DNA sequence: ACCTGAACACCGTTCAAGT
DNA sequence: ACCTGAACACCGTTCAAGT
């Protein structure tokens, strides 16, 4: 793959790499990517090839640098994925609040966040791993708590309900994205092998997402503002 | 690692490997594991080392065979993990149904399933990936739909509600397990760096799980038996 | 400030062959 | 029935050094 032409090293040897100068006509021996360039390239690979192909080596090749060069921008791959996650979440469209009930607002926020996860291939999986690890992607929580707060619940209720919704939103999107991929891969292969009774198949009917969110909102409406901590729960022990 | 002593190949050369015979005193040149042995060993590694150490090579070494030997038992690693997932779910304790409301039953089933996920290190992550992929772990769905059905809901409602709960249960357990691990690793390191305001930290207070399940049950109680398909939902388009 | 070059210590999977 | 041996095509990460 190396092109045999001689590099312009003679020119480069005389450069004073005055550090402050931003992108000096890009006459450099290597790519000189910014941290943002790296994230953008990662999002590109993610969307067009998927998470399995988002390797440090592949990403580096896309940027025209060596794999080790990435470690100047990020301490490790997890940190890179956290930055990618934040970008995916930040891409969620903003919701028009004016004149809407808190229920409508929660529905709209949840849908916007789900759409953001679905906008990138394997987006839900990336965000899932990132927020399980406790890195980034707090935008999910923030927007949902904000919407629920409008219902006048106490802070604890809002946060717990938001956390419940986050798990559902991400889990549902993850599941749906995998199903899309499985369908596109095995569409022809399994086309006439359809003796369908798989319970996982029942989940993907349209409206499953809206149903879940509606269920949680209905739960909040019924609970009111009190936190259920009574021993009547048939719970853990 | 190879011990220099001579193998008992002389004895082995005379063997008629009559295929039906089960475990013939185990006088064999190699380990002769059953498929079940492999799953058991995988569960052992998972529980004591965690998912990152559950590699085909490590697993093979534990069983005393070559990595390639595993591919006689399973077509690939995903299939192995699916079998491991099924085992984890099957380990959920059974719930005493007698004289309990459907709400209590749902709570108990959900708790039993969560406990099963938490019983093995990284159990939630393994099950999460498996059921996202659409392989196995349907035990989760089955038990929850069974419990919800007792509330007299129509089949569609039961299944959608169960799917919602599955996402919450797995997501919550995943999150909690990662937090446990992060705490155990960085307990000393971050002990006096605690200027806490992380919203993810607010999630892990005890009762967050019960809250989520209670919220979903309350939602079901309010929804009754009708499926919300009216255009009043502030949903996706 | 941003990257190279080279190495280290790994992966999952295939396949012919052995017993 | 259950596994070996050897190979293929990869991984993430470190670190001294270069410009």
UniProtKB/TrEMBL annotation, chains A, B:
DNA-binding region: 55-74
Tagged with keyword GTP-binding: no
GO process annotations (BP): negative regulation of DNA-templated transcription; response to antibiotic
InterPro entries in the cross-refs: Homeodomain-like_sf, HTH-type_TetR-like_transc_reg, HTH_TetR, Repressor_TetR_C, Tet_transcr_reg_TetR, Tet_transcr_reg_TetR-rel_C_sf
GO molecular function terms attached to this record: DNA-binding transcription factor activity; transcription cis-regulatory region binding
Keyword tRNA-binding attached: no
Originating organism: Micromonospora avicenniae
Domain HTH tetR-type, chain residue ranges per copy: 32-92
Pfam families: TetR_C_1, TetR_N
Protein name: Transcriptional regulator, TetR family
Alphabetical UniProt keywords: DNA-binding, Repressor, Transcription, Transcription regulation
């Amino acid at each position: 793959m190396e092109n045999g032409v001689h590099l312009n090293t003679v020119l480069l040897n005389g450069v004073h790499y005055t550090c402050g100068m931003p992108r000096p006509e890009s006459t450099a021996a290597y790519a000189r990517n910014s941290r943002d360039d790296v994230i953008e390239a990662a999002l590109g690979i993610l969307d067009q090839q998927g998470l399995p192909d988002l390797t440090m080596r592949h990403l580096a090749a896309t940027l025209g640098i060596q794999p080790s060069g990435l470690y100047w921008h990020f301490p490790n791959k997890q940190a890179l994925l956290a930055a990618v996650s934040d970008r995916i979440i930040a891409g969620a469209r903003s919701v028009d609040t004016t004149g809407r009930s808190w229920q409508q607002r929660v529905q709209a926020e949840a849908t916007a966040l789900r759409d953001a996860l679905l906008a990138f291939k394997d987006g839900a999986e990336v965000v899932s791993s990132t927020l399980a690890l406790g890195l980034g992607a707090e935008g999910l929580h923030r927007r949902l708590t904000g919407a629920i707060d409008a219902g006048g619940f106490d802070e604890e209720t809002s946060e717990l309900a938001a956390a419940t919704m986050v798990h559902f939103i991400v889990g549902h999107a993850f599941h749906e994205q995998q199903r899309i991929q499985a369908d596109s891969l095995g569409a022809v292969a399994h086309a006439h092998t359809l003796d369908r009774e798989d319970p996982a198949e029942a989940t993907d009917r349209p409206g499953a997402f809206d149903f879940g969110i509606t269920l949680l909102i209905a739960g909040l409406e019924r609970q009111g503002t009190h936190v259920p901590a009574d021993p009547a729960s048939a719970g853990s022990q």
